[in-house]
Give the backbone structure.
Amino acid sequence: MATPKLQVAELDPVWSRIRLEGEAAVSGEPLLGGLVHSSVLHHPTFERALAYRIAMKLSSPEMSGQILREIVDEALADEPGIAQAARADIVAINDRDPACNTFLQPMLYFKGFQAVQAYRVAHHLWTQGRRDMAYFFQMRVSEVFGVDIHPAARIGKGIMIDHAHSIVIGETAVVGDNVSMLHSVTLGGTGKTDGDRHPKIGDGVLIGAGAHVLGNIRIGHCSRIAAGSVVLHDVPPCKTVAGVPAKIVGEAGCAQPAMAMDHRVPGE
């Protein structure tokens, strides 16, 4: 007797959970049936669903959803790491955001997640020399989500951008793995100097709301940047900085601040 073949969803726990949550969402709110079916349940794989969702969010009279979907499908096929990073982002959001109760929520509703995945496609296009198309994706992400990430920037996996309003990440910025940031964060330059001019954010860093990290500086692994701070100089690993300009005010407070999401500075 032949061994039965496993369904793809059974080998992909993130996708399997999203589908189960989608079925539950339709059962609980039938009026969302069209959205959930078209965005999730209609698709055989996570990659196909992700491509559809990105294309539908970025489509406009200037570029149809069908054309965008073909571009995203091709990018996901050429670079499987894009979808793997997206899975890691969903898990990270669900772990760190108390307002996130399902894996389905980032896929359907969270613009921080959606903007980062569209950026990942734009970055792929950039590395393939398709610079104008990458700029088009950047423009649409900025218009639709209020998130402006240059396609040349390099961003790791396990990223959570909570609320994600008015995020700016410059051309030569680098963001490590398992980073959490809140709304209105800027990773920018300090003037019109060309070349490598944007921050390098280490793994596990927590960046508070409204923080501005400026210039070609390094933020050490597992450090914390307090809300509203302006960081102009390197930050050692596992420290907390706060103020304008930011200064070291203590230790990071835990081994993984981006996962703990504790924004209180020492002494509070």
About this structure: The chain is about 40% helix and 15% strand. Residues 12-147 form a domain with the serine acetyltransferase, domain 1 fold (CATH 1.10.3130.10). The first helix runs from residue 13 to 28.
